[in-house]
Amino acid sequence: xxxxxxVLLGVISIALVSCSRLNTPMRADLISKTYLEVIWxxxxxxxxxxxxxxxxxxxxxxxxxxxxxxxxxxxxxGVKVTCYKGENNLIPKFLHIFTHSMNxxxxxxxxxxDSLHFVISIKTxxxxxxxxxxxxxxxxxxxxGISKSQGDAIVLFIxxxxxxxxxx
Length: 168
Prior knowledge:
Elements: H1 3-20, H2 25-32, E1 35-44, E2 51-57, E3 60-68, E4 80-87, E5 94-98, E6 103-107, E7 115-123, E8 129-137, E9 143-148, E10 156-161
Parallel strand pairs: 1-9
Antiparallel strand pairs: 1-4, 2-3, 2-7, 4-5, 5-6, 7-8, 9-10
């Protein structure tokens, strides 16, 4: 074998070894473990009928005067706010806000705590108004469902679960 052939074979071998090291275990680990964890989730559920709703979570305004109506077949409004954090990666905590008029993602810098505090303001088409402060413990479940009573007074019903709510 000529010297040029040996050199060319050596260069090709080095190139192959270098390319195979691009997929190192550390890089594969980062790729395979990139996922999001739900910190908390708020769903607006049954009882809303063209109500104007405002929501503040941990002193942060989330939405203001959003018109919300529950679907009679599923008891769900389609309005939800979810707080996520990245696990084993560099994704910061953020909120995903989904309503009928918006679908946005914003940074969320509130420190993690054992409880969640929110303020809900509701105005019904009949002229009833209510602002209620609610605190929930995360140990009771990170999925929070908010339903509203029908009638002469606004009463909120808060449900918590360790599993996401299912709607059909």
